[in-house]
Specification:
alpha/beta; Arc Repressor Mutant, subunit A; Rossmann fold; 2 domains; 5-stranded parallel sheet; 5 strands; about 60% helix
């Protein structure tokens, strides 16, 4: 392993769940205490943990080694990593909802996030980004995760029909390779909800170094935003329930729609001609109906 590679290991919760059935009863009691009161375990001394679990201090040491930790200090560090993901993922609180109630809640959440978007993005920001895209010789679109990857494919879908040479990529190694092929006159559109994903930040920097105009649709002030020439900033508050879909996906799709609309307006007759040709093929090979969407 090279010095700059991070060691990725199984998290402590998964290790305890996997090893639990084979543990000694005393170790199992320690495991139960760790799982029910992580905060106590992180701050307590060995004797305090042993007393509360009803075991010997030697059992604490054996438990640590069973779950792959050299000792209590390393166990506490692994627990701290677990707590860093947030209590809602360790002790999810679910509210029983019927289908109609869930629909109301989710639609309301999305609606609120889209309403907040109006005050987040300046008109001039969207016009400047759209102008760069409309004039581009080539538009490369990179997504940096689940929702962003989906949005990258949708951005390609929206832009190619306007007569642009647009293509998306969601493989981090290919992104780096493709970024290295860009040049002045090209645009690299990078999408990330958090703006913290290192591979896409690196790809954006590479594209910019070779002369491409980089545009980030991401969180304001994030590393990705700071690495791009232009930023379309947005934030969407995450719901407390981990089962509720993240509204940031919808916000990103709306931003792409707005960009595509403005690009279409700027390209004018050129965009209309491309869409006409696409529509001609769809009407005569798919449904004989010109009222259907431009694409299925």
């Amino acid at each position: 392993m090279s010095s700059n590679e991070k060691k990725i290991s199984e998290d402590l919760l998964s290790r305890i769940a996997r090893l639990g059935p084979t543990m000694h009863p005393a170790e199992r009691r320690v495991a139960d205490l760790v799982l029910t009161d992580m905060d106590f375990t992180i701050h307590a001394r060995t004797t305090e943990i042993a007393t509360r679990a009803g075991v010997s201090t030697a059992s604490i040491t054996r438990f640590c080694r069973t779950v792959g930790c050299a000792g209590l200090r390393e166990l506490k560090l692994d627990l701290a990593k677990l707590l860093a993901i947030g209590d809602r993922y360790l002790h999810p609180r679910t509210v029983p909802l019927g289908a109609s109630e869930a629909m109301t809640e989710i639609v309301s959440l999305i609606h609120g996030s889209l309403d907040s978007l109006v005050t987040q993005v300046a008109d001039e920001t969207m016009k400047r980004a759209a102008k760069s895209i409309a004039r581009a010789k080539r538009v490369m679109i990179f997504g940096g995760g689940g929702g962003s990857s989906m949005a990258a494919m949708e951005a390609e879908n929206r832009l190619f029909r306007l007569g642009l040479h647009a293509s998306s990529c969601n493989d981090s190694q290919l992104q780096l390779m493709m970024a290295a092929t860009l040049k002045r006159g090209d645009v690299l559109l990078v999408l990330s909800i958090t703006g913290e994903y290192e591979p896409i930040i690196q790809a954006a920097e590479v594209g910019g170094q070779y002369g491409a105009h980089t545009i980030a649709v991401t969180a304001p002030g994030s590393p990705l935003a700071l690495s791009a020439a232009d930023t379309v900033p947005f934030q969407a508050e995450e719901p407390e329930s981990i089962f509720t879909p993240t509204p940031a996906r919808y916000v990103m799709l709306v931003l792409i729609d707005i960009l595509a609309f403005e690009v279409a307006r700027l390209r004018g007759d050129s965009a209309v001609e491309t869409m006409r040709r696409i529509k001609y093929q769809l009407v005569h090979t798919r449904d004989k109906d010109d009222s259907k969407p431009l694409g299925d």
